[in-house]
Design goal:
Two copies of one chain form a homodimer.
Chain A: H1 2-16, H2 26-29, H3 39-42, E1 50-51, E2 57-62, E3 69-73, E4 83-84, E5 86-87, E6 92-97, E7 104-111, E8 114-116, E9 124-127, E10 130-136, E11 154-162, E12 167-175, E13 189-193, H4 202-205, H5 209-218, E14 226-229, H6 265-281, E15 291-296, H7 298-309, E16 316-320, H8 329-340, E17 345-351, H9 358-370, E18 376-380, H10 386-396
Parallel strand pairs in A: 13-14, 13-15, 15-16, 16-17, 17-18
Antiparallel strand pairs in A: 1-2, 2-6, 3-4, 3-7, 5-6, 7-8, 7-10, 9-10, 11-12, 12-14
Helix pairs in contact in A: 6-7
Amino acid sequence: MKKLKWFSMLFGTVVLLSLPIISEGQDNQARQPQAPVPARQMVRRIVSPEILPDNKVTFRIYAPHTTSVAISGEWMNNAAPRENMARNDTGLWSVTLGPLPAEFYGYNFILDGVTVLDPSNAQIKRDGVRNASVLLVPGKESDFYAVKDIPHGTLSKVWYESLSLNLTRRMYIYTPPGYESDTKTMYPVLYLLHGGGGDEDAWTTLGRAHYILDNLISLGKVKPMIIVMPNGNANQTSALGDSPVLPVPEVRPANAPAAVPVTGRFEESLVKDIVPYIESHYRVLKDKNNRAIAGLSMGGGHTQRITLTNPDLFAYIGIFSAGARNVTDELENQFKVLKSKNPKLYWVGCGVSDPLAYQGSQNLAALLKKLEFKYSFRETPGGHTWANWRIYLSEMAPVLFK
Amino acid sequence: MKKLKWFSMLFGTVVLLSLPIISEGQDNQARQPQAPVPARQMVRRIVSPEILPDNKVTFRIYAPHTTSVAISGEWMNNAAPRENMARNDTGLWSVTLGPLPAEFYGYNFILDGVTVLDPSNAQIKRDGVRNASVLLVPGKESDFYAVKDIPHGTLSKVWYESLSLNLTRRMYIYTPPGYESDTKTMYPVLYLLHGGGGDEDAWTTLGRAHYILDNLISLGKVKPMIIVMPNGNANQTSALGDSPVLPVPEVRPANAPAAVPVTGRFEESLVKDIVPYIESHYRVLKDKNNRAIAGLSMGGGHTQRITLTNPDLFAYIGIFSAGARNVTDELENQFKVLKSKNPKLYWVGCGVSDPLAYQGSQNLAALLKKLEFKYSFRETPGGHTWANWRIYLSEMAPVLFK
């Protein structure tokens, strides 16, 4: 098996040029090596996904003994998001879809009803406890988070003591290009919070926050800043597999509305543990006007509560796909206090088709309007999606620290 | 679909306690929501893998319309590494294997001949262009790289300019616990190189180098050190998906012997670009006695060539599962020069069942013996595997910088 794999990998690229689509794929990888055969017959590489010049995409899987093969992708907005794939006479299934809009998508194959990843695509994203194969369709709309040949910031996985949660926990920290080379410049900080079902990995793997900032910094559109991406689940040390507790995934509601009751413990730990850690370990500006906070969904709820209970801490506040389920007198009074502190930005973004957060965002906007609290409201098409959250980060970041 | 997912995730954990194995799994995830049904019937969570108290492991997949289901795992050493799974009358397939030795394993399911990941297991490792589901069987033998509730170092993804390769490239850097808190301590550095088919991600995702060091540091068995893990493929900027070139995976021989011809360009760039970058950006000790280098397979070849052509640079040298295919006069002369520089450690490790490197390691050892060049030779059971490379790192690190 090892030798077969080696041969096939060694000759794969070369022969691929003349025979881009070969039958006989995954099946053979698990078989024992047979007697030597010519190299051309030993090639097993299936190209999937293949992005065509017009952004149509061909997906392929070799599954000669499977009865039905379908694909489900994040670009499918219909109620039953799947497309059947067609089998050729060798057992290679394929479908060409699109042209697809330029976007970063997840997709899965469905083999006789079982949802699996694309075996030919090494690129995967994990969203909580679910994985999907990924596809970046290039173009104008996905350009702001594409990886480019420009200076890149450093992405670090940093462990810190949370005294308030009594845990050693992990966060991701983005430091902009130049941070490590220079020893004098002080930077502003954006605290960026994920949603329910997510963890400290989400804003980079799914949100591509580091590449969004690299690109905006390179274009001179944002002030270079540090981004801190903590784990918002108060009882978790870190993402699945990097946690010292046994790796039994805790199942959480992926699309829970922001108003689901939470204990406030993460919010407390951000203020008591995370901000002090950052301000004692990084070259950062330590005043309110150089601190921003934003979060999506559950993280939007975190952001709202943190800033209402600590109105002197952040001058820039972003609420993505969250809001206020119930506008109580207490909430109104808290916003009055926050308004009196004159934050420089209260940025609210929501998709018009977001069943979880649209009404809450409207409630929040109505309250802010009533209080004559200056805010920005950004409506986008679509729903409770990373496509929207990437846009919100890219639009809010340029307004920060100005 | 979104709502169904949310309900099932919300109620999953609770009901799971009474009904750990439920039929109807992945199939339903792609269906449209039906009329509301009681919560117990909406639970779809399959537990796989389930590690039993005696380290037997049960694997499960719900695949009612699949004709044959098998599993292939890295613990299987026979020629045809797969075990069939059995179907129950609901369409849930399962098999209980082991007890398995304590180890970090990859495995795949094979559905009617198609190799896929375990859909119920969110944890994945990528080895070059291939993914596998992962399983950490706890016990004495895997304890040295388990994640523990101890201080953890920082793992950073750092981009640097390689003038010799004319690329902006990425490397991973481990800084030990305390590095960021203290501003005075200077650290020694280990440069740690991956093998063919790998990239800068390999030594952490597959080798668990950061957790090995965390554990050894916590036990006081090693001197706290910085570990630098570059990308050893001279024409690559970074791992798949994080590279500004289009994401067409370059296929490389995963198990290529170390003696496959290479150009020496990566070796040159390590000396000219990477070492100077580290020594100008990190608090490191900049003398030979505080520099170590080790690599596996292709990276063992890199290590050998770098240290032979720069005999004054590193006092500690590790060659894992590599060696000398041909012992030429030139090689012998180079080793004579290196010997004259009195390196403190020349550490050679190889698996006795490694068809790719065992003879080369023997050739190298014979040459060193002939030259009366002091070296360590560590033979382990098994082959060209990460199980061995994790052991070699854990055994070499305590000998460094003493």
